[in-house]
Amino acid sequence: MASVLVTGGTGFIAGHVIEDALRSGHRVRATVRSLRDPSRVAHLERLGSDHDGRLELVEADLTDDAGWDAAVAGIEHVLHVASPFPTTAPRDEAELIRPAVDGTLRVLGAASRAGARRVVMTSSIAAVSSGRPREEVRTRTEADWSDLDHSAAYAKSKTLAEQAAWRFADDHPELEVVAINPGLVLGPLHHAAAGTSLTLVRRLLNREVPAVPALGFATVDVRDVAIAHRLAMETPGAAGQRYICAGANLWLADMAEVLADEFGPLGFRVPRRRMPYWMLWLAGRFDPEVRLALNFVGSPERVSSDKARDELGWSARPVRETLADTGRSLIDHGLAKVR
Predict the structure, then answer these.
(1) Considering 6, 101, 156, 265, which has the largest number of Cβ atoms within 10 A of its Cβ?
(2) In this structure, are residues 302 and 308 in contact, taking their beta carbons and an 8 Å threshold?
(3) Which residues are known catalytic residues?
(4) 323 falls in which pLDDT band (50, 70, 90)?
(5) Residue 97 has what pLDDT?
(6) Is the pLDDT of residue 85 over 70?
(7) pLDDT for 87
(8) Please, which residues have CB within 8 angstroms of residue 139's CB and are 6 or more apart in sequence?
(9) Per mean pLDDT, which range of 3-12, 26-35, 36-45, 114-123 is the poorest?
(10) Residues 101, 157: contact at Cβ < 8 Å?
């Protein structure tokens, strides 16, 4: 089995990537920004002890050169998952773009110097379909790129980071690069501090919004994203490829219906009434998280995961299972409570 480095080990996706790699028999090293707070890494230490001690934690930060050469030493494959994920729009988009791009190049440079064979990076469908006119309705594939002139800061950060990785790969043919482009990632948490992408489900369960706006997302289970990373690492022909991993568009109203069915009997009053645009706009004046959503109202996300299915043998579990497991996890971690 291979020796694998996973970056951003305490993150939502990275925790599942680590768990899947360990379950598959790989020896894993994971980077964390700091080992000084035991509560931040306790879940990872438990994972390691549950898998014969095959997990090693090391310190390395995307914004600093220190630690990366040591982190990649002796590593065959790097799964570069770490990247900033905001809950609110930054005042300066460079706050997101700079660490995403520079951090990606920092990891790739260390991997190349160490003689690693392959880097699988976590990109996003935000690097595929963002910034496109609402009237331009078609299914996006790996051949598509987001329009940077009309994209929000997060989409720009993911697009520019992935494009930087492909330029690096062109200049360093000895290092294989693969990109995984997931949709909205949902699923169970390993610890309460992770999972910014679960904000939508948390807000619905906690009835933090009075009604449901016309927002659509191509969702994917975090456990399936983890499997996609491993398959991209293990599949010889994946080198040099992008892989979209996301399901069909899911309207937030449909998400709310599933959550109401699953958790209504437990006392959760999930909103089902449709929210008009003016109400969302008004709420966005006072709530930065809501303000981020305004750009996506009425625009379904249509992407194809056919390539991942055909070339990696990847498949996705039913979205209802994902939503139910997400809700249960939020409840178990005290992030969703009956009001």
Answers:
(1) 6
(2) no
(3) 158
(4) very high
(5) 87
(6) no
(7) 56
(8) 302, 303, 304
(9) 36-45
(10) yes
Q: What angle do CA 91, 9, 333 make, to 5 degrees?
A: 80
Local structure of 203: helix, strand or coil: helix
- Spell out the alpha helix ranges (H) of the chain: 12-23, 38-50, 68-72, 94-114, 153-171, 199-205, 222-234, 252-263, 277-284, 288-293, 306-307, 319-332
Nearest alpha carbon to residue 217 among 187, 248, 260: 248
Q: What DSSP designation does 275 have?
A: P
Q: What is the pLDDT of residue 298?
A: 83
- Six-digit token pair at 102? 């520079």
Query: For residue 306, which amino acid is it?
Result: D
Query: What is the residue type of 274?
Result: R
- The alpha-carbon radius of gyration of the chain (Å, integer) is 19
Say what the pTM is. 0.94
First to last CA, the chain: 48
CB 183 within 8 A of CB 218: yes
**Distance (Å, whole) CA 226 – CA 228:** 5
Q: How far apart are CA 176 and CA 232, in angstroms?
A: 11
Distance CA(41)–CA(50), nearest Å, equals 14
Fold entry, domain 3-332: Rossmann fold (3.40.50)
Supply the mean pLDDT for the chain.
Answer: 92
- Residue-level length of the chain: 339
Q: Which residue has the tokens 């949902």?
A: 186
Q: What is the pLDDT of residues 54-81, one digit of tens each?
A: 999 999 999 999 999 999 999 999 999 9
Which residues in 143-247 belong to E strands, given as ranges?
176-182, 184-186, 216-221, 242-245
- Angle at which helices 12-23 and 222-234 pack, to 10 degrees? 50
Domain boundaries along the sequence of the chain: 3-332
Residue with tokens 């997060």: 154
Q: Are 1 and 25 in contact (CB under 8 A)?
A: yes
- Bridge partner residues of 4 (DSSP): 28, 77
136 burial level (CB within 10 Å; 0-12, 13-18, 19+): exposed
Tokens 């492909």 sit at which residue?
A: 166
Q: What's the pLDDT at 153?
A: 83
